[in-house]
Amino acid sequence: MSEIVFEGVTRRFPLPRGGEFLAIDRIDLRIEEREFVAIVGPSGCGKTTLMRMAAGLDFPTDGRVLVGGKEVTGPGPERAVVFQQFALLPWKTVRENIGFGLMCKRTPKAEADAAIARYVELMGLSGHEDSFPHQLSGGMQQRVAIARAYVMQPAALLMDEPFGALDAQTRIVMQEELVRLARRNPRTVIFITHAVDEAIYLADRVVVMGRNPGRIIETIDIRPLREDGGWEAMPIEEVMDTPAFTHMRSRIWKLLKAREQERPAAPAPIPATVPAK
Amino acid sequence: MPTEARSSGWGFAVPRRAVVGLATVGGALLLWWLATSGLRLLNPLRLPSPQEVWAAFSQISTGQGYGGATLWQHALHSLWLVAKGFAVAVATGIPLGLLMGWSRRAEALINPIFLLLRPIPALAWIPLAIVWFGLGDTGKVFVIWLTAFVPSVINAFTGVRGVDPVLIAAARTQGASTAQVIRHVVVPGAMPMIFTGLRLSLQASWTTLVAAELVGAFFGLGRVLNVAGQDIFPGMILVGMAAVAACGAATTWLLGRAERRVVNWRPAV
Amino acid sequence: MAKRRDRNFLGPAGTSLGLGEFWALTAAGFVLFFAVWGGVAASGWLPPNLLPSPLAVWDTLVRLWNQPFAGHVYAEHLSASIQRFLMGWAIAVGIGVPLGLLMGWYRLLDEIVTPLFDAMRFVAPLAWVPLAALWFGTGIGGPLLIIFVGSFAPCVISAYRGARLVETRLVEAAQTLGASSRQVMLHVLIPGALPSIIAGLRVSAGLGWQSLVGSELIVVGAGLGYLMVQGQGNLNTTVVIAGMVGIGVVGFAIDVLLRAVEAAFKRKWGQA
């Protein structure tokens, strides 16, 4: 069981000059097992903080985060994270980066090598096993990061704007790859993005968030659209041209815009790192 | 920097930089010869001629040598002292710097000691080292240790603080323990900075050693310089200086090799 | 509330110390330093002529302030050292910075000087001592040469880097606006190189001060280094440490001063 449940989650950050910044305000959200949920929202709406709490890298000030019915007390290999900045270890080769989690778990070498080889193949990284990250393009680096997440056979995948640092063409290729991968190995996925297109194309459900404070504006089920429109069989550019898709896109844009006009950007920046207390 | 090549006429290209460089060095040597020997513009007691330097080199390289030993013995002695002091500094300074980088508590506790000791150059410790350890090798290893210790600590510290926090978070999400994070993320991440510190402190170590040997020593390249200065033997002074430079260059080259082996994952700059 | 993760779970960037804890530990560090020094000195484990107590050093400093030692009172030694340093350093800056700038702008000069520079680079500054004594004597000239040699390289290198780092775009922009080559140099090239030069000056001052100490240990008749050598000759360890204190204080002051200059420039022109 690996459903992810946010129960009345609130997160406040202390501000450097005293006082507090309310990043997330009483969020309730339930992500079913093997469901792909995309969270969209402007920067500063707390979507990344939400993902970090599911990953166990941050903790709610109030409320609880449960994965598979158990409260999250820290990171664990059953919840793999893909970061926007790839976060590959520059001093390890592609093979070593993919195998890092297996090494930490002390997986027997033969077993680890087989698993690494499988994902190298699956992610189209063959021939680059002994390259260092700096020798790869951004898209290739993110493939390594995704392989590194999948190789742990996690029940849940947490992706924080994984394609945010890629150029537009690479991004489309990676979106299609991810759909293919997600269909072959369904997992519970939280996918953070600020690209509305990407969210609609990838997700089963799209959660739209607003900022100051971070709250859920609306949750939209995309599955009926996808099944009725037969998106699964179509290439991404055709999907994005269908009236159903464009209609959905403008609906979400309107939601985000209405909220922005009602509440302008937060005065306080989100801290880059997590304070101790 | 673009190093355009010009055709040499022999079917291969010679970089312009090398041509001008060789011409310059050749010209300087010619000028030296002309000024001291060819035209005798300078008093040989101020600047010796190339022949005198060669004679001094021959004298110290063979037989009795000069200042109590041959050039090779002096040079090996100095090299050995630098190697010892440097090794002790690396073995003590880097772990301390890593600790201070990793733990803000350790930093707060230990930093005051560095605030007090850091502005004092290692050279200023030489008289105290002589009082404590005499003119033998121990005092010299001590001052070389001091020279290299502070940069080792500071650069290891800075290196740890420069490690991208996202890398640590990523390692944690993959189940790395604190020991694994330090070994696979923090230490390799700090390595480039540590080597920068080592390079700086290696140069400084030679300066310190020469000073310490000039103040008082029984062997070593500084001893050669000291005796040659007292004997007013300009040829031997230049031999001593060249030997110090050669040792400095050789150790720097070795350190560069070590760096390329350890930090093999970075794009070539 | 979930179980708290251990300290440093996300590395040093993920933790912070309370101000109270920080100052308590810092104070403890200072106290520890003097307590260990004083404790060892008081224990009689080492004879006092090897390790005098901090108080004895303080007494000596006060005494040296009023009574001459090695021919002069402390302030005279101090000012002798500072003057010598300032002269040597000024010569190094005065020659090194223009040379570095010109090397950055004129390729032929770069190609001529760099090999000579590389050939001399590994000669430790203190190895110049016998030659300096031979050429300029042990009074003023010799030590000046040592300080010059010690602080010259960073001046040249930083000015060279600064000159190379000025973007061609800026030069071209100035030219299209009708600037003469003199104006380009004055308004674009020199200000563009300045941040790097100032950073280099700080490094070079540190090295110059260090070289001064070294040269004073070996050749001169006044100054903090000379005071220490005389103290060492008389096995007067308090005098030696008193000299180290002065050297540390001046070195610290030089660094603080130049850091302030650097920070002021950065403030004025945004990040450097």
Which two chains form the greatest contact, residue counts included? B-C, 74 and 71 residues
Which word captures the global form of chain C? globular
- Unreliable stretches covering 5 or more consecutive residues of chain C: none
Q: Give the neighbour order of strands across the main sheet of chain A.
A: 6-7-8-3-9-10
| Main sheet record of chain A | 6 strands, mixed
Overall average residue pLDDT of chain A: 88
Into which percent range does the helicity of residues of chain C fall?
Answer: over 70%
What is the N-to-C succession of helices and strands of chain A?
EEEHEEEHHHHEHEHEEHHH
Q: What is the percentage of strand-forming residues of chain C?
A: under 5%
Q: Report the C-alpha radius of gyration of chain C, rounded.
A: 24 Å
| Helix vs. strand class of chain C | mainly alpha
Query: What assembly state would you assign to the polypeptide chains in this entry?
Result: heterotrimer
Q: Which structural class matches the secondary elements of chain A?
A: alpha/beta
Number of domains of chain C: 1
Bulk shape of chain A: globular
The CATH architecture of chain C can be named as Orthogonal Bundle
Per CATH, the superfamily of chain C is: MetI-like
Instruction: Specify the number of helices of chain A.
Output: 10
- Segments of chain A where pLDDT lies below 50 for 5+ residues? 270-277
| CATH topology term of chain C | MetI-like fold
Calculate the mean pLDDT score of chain C and round it: 87
Protein name (chain C): ABC transporter permease
Family (chain C): Belongs to the binding-protein-dependent transport system permease family.
Subcellular location (chain C): Cell membrane
Domain ABC transmembrane type-1 (chain C): 78-258
Question: What features would you highlight for this structure?
Answer:
heterotrimer; A: 277 residues; alpha/beta; six-stranded mixed sheet; 10 helices; 23% strand; globular; C: 272 residues; mainly alpha; MetI-like fold; 9 helices; 0% strand
